[in-house]
Design brief:
The complex is a heterodimer of chains A (263) and B (325). Chain A is 26% helix and 30% strand. By secondary structure, chain A is α/β, with parallel strands linked by helices. Chain B has a 7-stranded parallel beta sheet, with helices on both faces. Chain B has a 5-stranded parallel beta sheet with strand order 15-14-16-17-18.
């Protein structure tokens, strides 16, 4: 079984702080990490590999040269090899152009039975790239997967976490699956994994090597445009009371709820 | 003139209320553009189509067929694709639910057009194009996005607008003819297992009562459920509370959980880590109870109490009980 995992490098979220004055997030430009929600896709691929004989896991990421670190992270917990799609011409891609580029690379490498991705990336937070890649490739898309119930070399049966419950569906392979956090507990890399990652060779692809249609990549190939960016104030200056005893605190809460016409 | 479309959600025998919120957005866009507003609904034995008119639709496109009783992404997107090609809407909006977030990227890719996710504001710009505003990076950045291709497509965050009532509808139901071929699906739908709790998904609730590590144990979480019941709300949680196994993941609020924007958000024993705030900062009213005066949750609270959450909630429940007597 040939498995492909799509991963993205994002700004590290646990390194951010709120600026007291402006009430906005302060992000250090230097810190980047593998999208935390992609860890679940990587872990799931590794678990499949542990169950099946002859499984091979390739990770693909599109991003700046430094994104090869994300690939190494994935290799350190058990993925086999990785491709970094990096080219100035890819820059500024929206989800449509990103999905086009990723699917061109997937086709170029070829032969995948299963494509796994995260539910969404913690920076853009769209969750659109996965389903869009599946649509580009013309293969079935299974989103919000919380369990792979059954997987053979012919088909996959999954549980999807949707509003109000779980849905069970099945499709023949190849298929694309986006996973949610519920699916597993990602492992921590061990020493031999780290060593393997260190010496792993990440292959680079540019626009020419994936035979991309140049009019469909990067900012130029993106159907959407950001026209304005602004920073909302997150802080509020509410009233803070120190509770003398639970009764009076509850009373104050009750009065506040009444003043807001909630009760 | 090409119109504005909303994708209504019909599932498990009911039209989901998010469909009405979408119509409120659609109505304001259609009125500005002076075009028709249509709602598209797919499913089997579809009921209550009337309510779509009551909430803003001029017309309804209805595809009612046994073969699409369940959500099959390929059949649904093929059918929608053929309808878009035939009727040529200029704007299509869907809710940012698991349905909307699945069908819209598949459809927009087929249509070779752009898609903006999880918008909290939609308006028509001076040049008549759709301006789509959405939060990113945990609500810390807002971006306004324009689509250069047609149709212009967006998903909209649940609860970003209140439904309206509408009495000028032409109440026209269009039942388009769909080729048999389009109903063919690669998906084998097996079953739906409903959650035991009858709770609304937390993203759709008006009131969210959330607990964190400061609630101390699973048993204390029962008080949150009790309070939620009294205030017609649902229970949310921090990741720590979920990781402790006090409550299932579907209740997690935050960067790696759900984003909620209820009218009232109450945080009991939640520190307010940035990843948590990312999921609740667009709530209308925030109340926090925490023993630590420096807890960051107080920075985003309209009303805060420094004190023991478990004791205060117990007293609050008592007081609410007394009031009802
Ligand atoms: C990549 C990433 C993604 C994440 N995603 C999420 C997410 O989606 N959602 C999320 O919530 N977190 C998320 N986190 C975790 C987040 O950083 C925090 O660790 C988490 O939100 C803390 O939960 P908590 O507030 O319940 O616990 P704590 O931080 O331990 O806070 C408990 C609070 O309770 C107070 N307290 C203690 N006893 C009492 C009492 N008796 N009465 C009142 N108050 C009391 C304490 O003063 C403290 O402020 C994420 C982290 C990372 C790195
Ligand atoms: N640049 C990228 N390279 C590889 N995979 C990506 C990229 N962007 C998004 N993905 C994948 O698509 C998922 C959804 O991302 P997004 O639509 O940006 O929220 C992520 O969890 C990744 O699995």
């Amino acid at each position: 079984m040939k498995i492909c995992v799509l991963i993205k490098q994002v700004p590290a979220t646990d390194k951010v702080k709120i600026d007291e004055k402006t009430g906005t997030m302060v992000r250090s430009e230097m810190e980047a990490e593998l999208n935390p929600l992609d860890m679940y896709a990587v872990e799931e691929a590794v678990r499949i590999k542990e169950r099946l004989k002859d499984a091979h896991i390739t990770v693909i990421t599109m991003g700046p040269p430094s994104a090869s670190d994300a690939i190494k992270d994935a290799i350190s917990i058990g993925c086999d090899d990785g491709y970094l799609l990096t080219d100035r011409r890819f820059a500024g891609a929206d989800t449509w152009a990103t999905a086009y580029t990723l699917s061109a690379a997937i086709k170029k490498i070829g032969g995948f039975d299963l494509v796994l991705c995260g539910e969404r990336a913690t920076d853009g937070e769209t969750g659109q790239v996965g389903p869009s890649v599946g649509s580009q490739m013309g293969i079935p898309v299974l989103t919000y997967v919380s369990e792979i119930v059954e997987l053979t070399d012919k088909y996959v049966r999954v549980k999807r976490a949707i509003e109000g419950g779980h849905e069970i569906v099945e499709v023949d392979l190849p298929a694309l699956i986006s996973v949610v956090k519920e699916i597993n507990d990602p492992r921590i890399p061990n020493l031999s994994g780290k060593l393997k990652a260190k010496s792993a060779q990440v292959k680079n692809f540019d626009a020419i090597s994936i035979e991309a249609d140049q009019s469909k990549i990067g900012l130029g190939g993106s159907p959407t445009r950001v026209v304005k960016v602004f920073y909302p104030k997150l802080t509020r200056s509410g009233q803070i009371l120190r509770s003398k005893d639970p009764q009076s605190a509850a009373k104050a809460l009750l009065n506040f709820l009444k003043s807001k016409e909630i009760i | 003139m090409p119109g504005v479309w909303t994708l209504a959600e019909f599932r498990e025998g009911v039209i989901n209320s998010v469909s009405y919120e979408l119509l409120a957005w659609g109505r304001s866009l259609a009125d500005t553009l002076n075009v028709e507003l249509s709602s598209v609904v797919l499913g089997y034995e579809i009921k209550d189509v009337e309510t779509l008119f009551d909430h803003g639709a001029d017309t309804v496109y209805k595809v009612d067929d046994k073969r699409i009783e369940h959500f099959l992404p390929d059949s649904y997107s093929n059918i929608l694709f053929s309808l878009v090609k035939k009727y040529d809407p200029q704007i299509i909006i869907a809710s940012a639910t698991t349905y909307g977030r699945t069908i819209m990227p598949i459809l927009s890719t087929k249509l070779n057009t752009g898609l903006t996710a999880d918008c909290t504001k939609l308006e028509i710009g001076e040049d008549g194009t759709l301006l789509q505003t959405r939060p990113a990076i945990g609500g810390n950045v807002m971006a306004t996005i324009r689509t250069q291709t047609r149709p212009q497509m967006a998903t909209v965050r649940p609860r970003s607008k209140k439904p309206i009532s509408y009495d000028k509808s032409q109440r026209k139901v269009i039942v388009p003819e769909i080729e048999d071929e389009l109903f063919k699906s690669a998906y084998r739908w097996i079953k739906f297992e409903r959650d035991e709790s009858t709770d609304l998904p937390i993203q759709e609730a008006d009131v969210v009562i959330a607990g964190g590590r400061g609630m101390k144990d699973e048993k204390n979480f029962e008080m949150l459920y009790e309070l939620a019941k009294k205030l017609n709300g649902v229970v949310g949680a921090s990741r720590t509370a979920v990781d402790m196994g006090w409550i299932p993941y579907s209740h997690q609020v935050g960067l790696s959980g759900k984003t909620v924007s209820p009218h009232l958000y109450m945080a009991f024993g939640i520190s307010g880590a940035i990843q948590h705030i990312a999921g609740m900062s667009s709530s209308d009213i925030v109340i926090a109870v925490n023993t630590d005066p420096d807890a960051p949750i107080f920075n985003v609270a309209d009303f805060g109490i420094i004190g023991d959450a478990t004791e205060i909630i117990r007293e609050l429940l008592k007081a609410l009980g007394d009031e009802n007597e």
